[in-house]
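Question: does this match?
>
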Amino acid sequence: MIRLWYTLTLLVGLLWLSAGLLPAGQAPTGKDTDILARLRAVDEEIARGWSATLFVTRNGWRSGDSHARYRVTADATRAAIWGDQFTYLTLPPFVPNSPFQKGTSLNSRPVQDYMLKDLHIQLNAVYTEWEALTTTASGEIIEQARGGATLVLYPMDIDSFAMDEGEILHVAGRGYGRYLKRVLEQKRSKDGLLHLRAEGWLGPEEHGEWRLTIEPQTLLVRSAEFITQGKVAYRCRTSGHLGDKVKIAASGRLEYPGEDEKDTFWFQVEFSEFRLAFIEALYRAVRQRIEHPESGTEIFDTRGQYRVLRVE
């Protein structure tokens, strides 16, 4: 599955202009012609520090579809995410793998999730508290218990979370400027929206074409598609408004299309709060949990030589 990489480096160094190529008879306005610079300027302002509370419904192949609350805070060099209040809408896939009871499926699913990326201390980690489930082929839960905790340590250049702070910004209609290289075409529709085609990238090895629909006054991205090798690799839709000085979308849906529906990763988001401020208390709480895991936590260190450790 194609994922977004290197999302922490949201702060763009230079603002440069790139005029769009328009169909005959549709002259760009002064504001339209510098659209890349304007998008990046908003990204820069957000990257100085932001925070949000959001409620996320998403599919999960191994743990089942879920609904949860996420609190996030980030700036250009740090990001912390705390997921809790998990409700599961479907059970994990049934696989008769339990060594304890023949014909049953033993699975685990998160009940608390913590993610931290910090370029200053060179830490990229995910701490998860699990719930263990034993289910039958008919979908009955016959045992449900606390399942321990895991801590995974990643290299700094690895996308460590199933939904990171960059994707949260995208589903808020923000953060696209750094992925756009050169405008190919832009035009306004009768409803006043700006439609943009641009060369760009999704991941380090994924280059292609972005197609964006932008609300001109707020610069919110209302729809986005990334096309590479003739296929849509990424799709996002947003709606509503939230925030004061810099607005975000109130809700949105992001998809990474697969070969068919069951191979498509997606999540839907409803934002309840957005602020242009980095919340140190949230960052410290997440960092504390990751740097001081509970006794019995299994640690998977994927930096360099792979190691598995256990906290005594």
Q: What stands out?
A: The chain has four helices and 15 strands. The CA atoms of residues 17 and 130 lie 48 Å apart. The chain has a mean pLDDT of 87. The first strand starts at residue 50 and ends at 58.
